[in-house]
Amino acid sequence: MKRVNRKNLGWIIAGFLLSIIPSQAAMTFPNINIGVGTANTPQDFTNGLQILIWLTILTLAPSILLMTTSFIRLVVVLSLTRQAIGAGNLPPNQVITSLALILTFFIMAPTFNEINENALQPYLKNQITQQTALDRGIVPVRNFMFRQTHEKELALFVRMAKIEKPKNKDEVPTYVLLPSFILSELKTAFTIGFVVYLPFLVIDIVVSSVLVSMGMMFLPPTMIALPFKLIMFVMVDGWYLVVKSLVESFVR
């Protein structure tokens, strides 16, 4: 019996499938037409403008997701922790970013659930209008940003925007709240990063002093200090403590 070549076997299977599929069901392919026409009425112009706005929002959606959530603080602190350990690119950037993104969804879950219940689901059920859904959906995000924003940063951008001093949170424009939140997150992230960095800095100083006292000035201190930093980080369960501190640092 002849052995069938793998290449010929593949063609046989493909031909068999192509002969079977048309006999079982008629295959249909969608017809998609995309074009640009002239807006003859104001309604056509309004609809086209809305589509353009929504496409712009979808393009900026990743940036909006990162800038209005806990991602900034998480990725900065995790990156500083990796740099403090001094193990080069370990963990890799993909791991740091993925961990920060997963923790972001974990921390923002209550906010996302509130948006889904109060804005998205009623809109999908045609219970509220699109504008009402947007107004309701931004409220949980603003509340989250307000809880993490420092008064000093908020006052700075209120003054730079040259608007009247808001009497309550509802009077603070979103375009003023957003940069205040980002600046506050960077400040908090570097504060936490300094606390994480300090023990590793002490180890580097001790190792450098010992090497100098022993006359080994040409031996790289970072190479000798790395095993001690790794042992200390593993013994105290460093990633557990860092992640725990980060999650608990967000005001609920």
Secondary structure: elements and pairs:
Blueprint lengths: L5 H19 L17 H26 L3 H15 L7 H32 L5 H19 L2 H11 L12 H40 L7 H15 L2 H11 L4
Walk me through what this model shows.
This protein is mainly α and 252 residues long. It has one domain. The chain is built from nine helices and no strands. Helix 3 runs antiparallel to helix 4 and helix 7 crosses helix 8. The longest helix is centred in the C-terminal third of the chain and has 40 residues. The radius of gyration is 28 Å and the shape is elongated. The chain starts with 5 loop residues before the first helix and ends with a helix.
Rg over alpha carbons = 28 Å
Number of strand segments: 0
Distance between the termini: 73 Å
What integer is the average pLDDT?
78
How many helical elements? 9
Report the sheet with the most strands, covering strand number, pairing sense and barrel closure.
none
| Percentage of residues assigned to helices | over 70%
Taken from the alpha-carbon principal axes, the silhouette is: elongated
Given as residue ranges, the uncertain stretches (5+ residues, pLDDT < 50) are 16-34
| Total number of domains | 1
The amount of beta strand, in percent, is under 5%
